[in-house]
Design a protein that fits this description.
The chain is mainly alpha-helical and 128 residues long. The protein has a single domain, classed as Rossmann fold, CATH 3.40.50.150. It contains 8 helices and 3 strands. Strands 1-3-2 form a 3-stranded antiparallel β-sheet, covered by helices on one side. The model has no long low-confidence stretch (mean pLDDT 96).
Length: 128
Protein backbone atom coordinates (compact mmCIF):
# COMPACT_ATOMS: atom_id res chain seq x y z
CA UNK A 1 0.00 0.00 0.00
CA UNK A 2 1.26 3.46 -0.82
CA UNK A 3 0.19 6.30 1.47
CA UNK A 4 1.42 9.45 3.14
CA UNK A 5 1.57 10.43 6.76
CA UNK A 6 0.09 13.79 7.69
CA UNK A 7 3.60 15.11 8.34
CA UNK A 8 4.84 13.89 4.97
CA UNK A 9 2.08 15.81 3.27
CA UNK A 10 2.59 19.06 5.17
CA UNK A 11 6.40 19.01 5.27
CA UNK A 12 7.41 16.73 2.41
CA UNK A 13 6.34 19.00 -0.44
CA UNK A 14 8.10 22.29 -0.92
CA UNK A 15 5.00 24.16 -2.06
CA UNK A 16 2.71 23.43 0.88
CA UNK A 17 3.57 26.74 2.63
CA UNK A 18 2.04 28.49 -0.40
CA UNK A 19 -1.36 26.94 0.39
CA UNK A 20 -1.09 25.96 4.07
CA UNK A 21 -4.81 25.58 4.78
CA UNK A 22 -5.32 23.32 1.76
CA UNK A 23 -2.25 21.32 2.78
CA UNK A 24 -3.50 20.84 6.34
CA UNK A 25 -6.94 19.84 5.07
CA UNK A 26 -5.52 17.12 2.84
CA UNK A 27 -3.02 16.01 5.48
CA UNK A 28 -5.85 15.47 7.95
CA UNK A 29 -7.26 12.80 5.62
CA UNK A 30 -4.18 10.59 6.00
CA UNK A 31 -3.81 8.32 9.04
CA UNK A 32 -0.68 8.22 11.16
CA UNK A 33 1.76 5.46 10.22
CA UNK A 34 1.55 3.71 13.61
CA UNK A 35 -2.24 3.48 13.25
CA UNK A 36 -1.87 1.92 9.80
CA UNK A 37 0.68 -0.60 11.02
CA UNK A 38 -1.56 -1.52 13.96
CA UNK A 39 -4.51 -2.08 11.61
CA UNK A 40 -2.51 -4.45 9.42
CA UNK A 41 -1.44 -6.38 12.52
CA UNK A 42 -5.05 -6.49 13.78
CA UNK A 43 -6.08 -7.89 10.38
CA UNK A 44 -3.74 -10.83 10.95
CA UNK A 45 -0.64 -9.89 8.98
CA UNK A 46 2.47 -11.24 10.69
CA UNK A 47 4.98 -8.93 9.06
CA UNK A 48 4.41 -5.24 8.43
CA UNK A 49 7.29 -3.35 6.85
CA UNK A 50 7.53 0.24 5.68
CA UNK A 51 9.68 1.91 3.07
CA UNK A 52 10.06 5.63 2.44
CA UNK A 53 11.45 6.39 -1.04
CA UNK A 54 14.30 8.89 -1.06
CA UNK A 55 13.30 10.63 -4.30
CA UNK A 56 10.41 13.05 -4.73
CA UNK A 57 7.27 11.66 -6.33
CA UNK A 58 7.62 14.04 -9.29
CA UNK A 59 10.81 14.20 -11.37
CA UNK A 60 13.08 16.69 -9.59
CA UNK A 61 13.65 18.94 -12.63
CA UNK A 62 9.92 19.55 -12.87
CA UNK A 63 9.12 19.35 -9.18
CA UNK A 64 11.70 21.97 -8.16
CA UNK A 65 10.63 24.53 -10.76
CA UNK A 66 10.31 27.71 -8.70
CA UNK A 67 7.95 29.14 -11.32
CA UNK A 68 5.77 26.03 -11.38
CA UNK A 69 3.15 27.22 -8.88
CA UNK A 70 2.20 30.06 -11.21
CA UNK A 71 1.25 27.54 -13.92
CA UNK A 72 -2.15 25.81 -13.60
CA UNK A 73 -0.74 22.74 -15.39
CA UNK A 74 1.93 22.41 -12.71
CA UNK A 75 -0.66 22.81 -9.96
CA UNK A 76 -2.79 20.11 -11.58
CA UNK A 77 -0.01 17.65 -10.72
CA UNK A 78 -1.02 17.56 -7.04
CA UNK A 79 -4.49 17.58 -5.49
CA UNK A 80 -3.45 19.92 -2.68
CA UNK A 81 -3.78 22.89 -5.00
CA UNK A 82 -7.40 22.00 -5.82
CA UNK A 83 -8.34 22.34 -2.14
CA UNK A 84 -7.08 25.93 -1.94
CA UNK A 85 -9.63 28.70 -2.06
CA UNK A 86 -9.06 31.40 -4.65
CA UNK A 87 -8.12 33.75 -1.84
CA UNK A 88 -5.62 31.33 -0.31
CA UNK A 89 -4.07 30.64 -3.71
CA UNK A 90 -3.80 34.34 -4.56
CA UNK A 91 -2.27 35.19 -1.18
CA UNK A 92 0.14 32.26 -1.37
CA UNK A 93 1.24 33.02 -4.92
CA UNK A 94 1.82 36.67 -3.99
CA UNK A 95 3.97 35.53 -1.07
CA UNK A 96 5.86 33.10 -3.31
CA UNK A 97 6.36 35.78 -5.98
CA UNK A 98 7.90 38.03 -3.34
CA UNK A 99 10.43 35.30 -2.45
CA UNK A 100 11.23 34.79 -6.14
CA UNK A 101 11.64 38.55 -6.63
CA UNK A 102 13.93 38.80 -3.60
CA UNK A 103 16.12 35.99 -4.93
CA UNK A 104 15.23 33.80 -1.93
CA UNK A 105 13.36 31.04 -3.75
CA UNK A 106 16.35 28.74 -4.26
CA UNK A 107 17.30 29.01 -0.59
CA UNK A 108 13.71 28.21 0.39
CA UNK A 109 13.64 25.21 -1.97
CA UNK A 110 16.86 23.89 -0.46
CA UNK A 111 15.49 24.22 3.07
CA UNK A 112 12.30 22.40 2.10
CA UNK A 113 14.22 19.70 0.24
CA UNK A 114 16.34 19.10 3.34
CA UNK A 115 13.11 18.41 5.25
CA UNK A 116 11.75 16.18 2.47
CA UNK A 117 15.00 14.20 2.46
CA UNK A 118 14.46 13.39 6.14
CA UNK A 119 10.76 12.47 6.10
CA UNK A 120 9.93 11.63 2.48
CA UNK A 121 6.75 12.30 0.57
CA UNK A 122 5.20 8.87 0.69
CA UNK A 123 5.39 5.62 2.59
CA UNK A 124 4.97 2.14 1.18
CA UNK A 125 3.58 -0.47 3.53
CA UNK A 126 4.15 -4.12 2.78
CA UNK A 127 2.26 -6.63 4.89
CA UNK A 128 2.31 -10.42 4.64
Amino acid sequence: MSTQTPQQHVDGFWWTPIVPDASKTLASRFPELDWMKDKFTELGFDTVQTYIPADPLIHADYYLDQHGPFDPTYRNGDSTWALASESELETGLDWWQSLVNQGRAKEFLKEREDIRAQIGQTTSIVAC
